[in-house]
Amino acid sequence: MSNLDRRPPARELGGLAGTPAGPVLDLLPGKEVLLGESTRVRRLLPTLGRRLVGAWAFVDHYGPDDISSFPGMQVPPHPHTGLQTVSWLLEGEVHHRDSLGSDARIRPKELALMTAGHGIAHSEQSPAVHPRYLHGAQLWVALPEAARETAPDFAHHPSLPGFTSDGLTATVLMGGLGGATSPGIAHTPLVGADLDLAAGADVELSLEPDFEYALLASSGSAGVEDAPLEVGAMLYLGTGRRRVRVRAAEPARLLLLGGEPFEERIVMWWNFVGRSGEEIIEYAQAWNAEDERFGAVVGHDGDRLEAPPLPPVPLKARGRVR
Fold this sequence. Notes:
Elements: E1 11-13, E2 23-29, E3 31-35, E4 39-45, E5 56-66, E6 74-80, E7 83-91, E8 94-98, E9 103-106, E10 111-115, E11 120-125, E12 133-142, E13 153-157, E14 162-165, E15 168-174, E16 176-177, E17 180-181, E18 190-197, E19 201-206, E20 212-219, E21 222-224, E22 227-229, E23 233-238, E24 243-248, E25 252-259, E26 266-269, E27 272-274, H1 277-288
Antiparallel strand pairs: 1-26, 2-23, 3-4, 4-5, 5-12, 6-11, 7-10, 7-12, 8-9, 8-11, 10-13, 14-15, 15-18, 16-17, 18-25, 19-24, 20-23, 20-25, 21-22, 21-24, 26-27
């Protein structure tokens, strides 16, 4: 999904200065953001006080929205560099097309993993005939220096591994958890898992102490250790945990994100991840000039998104946290 903000702030992320040396329970409320003319999302990353969780650099949670009388998601062709997009649906269907020629219908509990690398363009649209509700999360993973210029790629995994325990049904999107390992290729140590909790569930999850973690409540509410977590909010757990206890009095869906703290410093603006402001300017100009770096989205009939105006001041380093 594109960041449709026409005045996106520039951010420098990465480094270990903002990573706690132990467990915390920091609540990160979602910030409502208007994308385009009608789509509203809750932005969890980057947000005030937290810019990264491992290599997870961008988290938008949207819906559930009743789109029975609306076209639903309609994101025209747009570019990406230096990151992976992880699309995760709880309800609905999204049609993905990209400049590699990929053409896929993404449905709930399926992984759509796009690696931008050197550069790619894609579009995402609800089909003309679509389910009533649209609900999901759009996630970006920053690529490390060794992988950020890799050739672009798209992978669609209709079936994902998981496990059940004490009222929990877990599906592993990225990395590994509870003995299950995702087929999605990651370029840094990380994990992403959907946690489907039945009413009365009470479970302990085993964690990697070298990872930092966060939990997003996609639906329902839960208790995480001693902290409440309400729908649309994220709870940052810090590092140094070997386990975390999660309880749900009502049915709930949580998204667990984690990974080794991302040491490299990166600049993120609009849909690009680079290492300097000069690189970001180069990407934006190349996209607006229809440079072959990004190619053309095969099968899309319509206009593409232009890059927003660049900031009037040089991109400024701000670190992992504000």
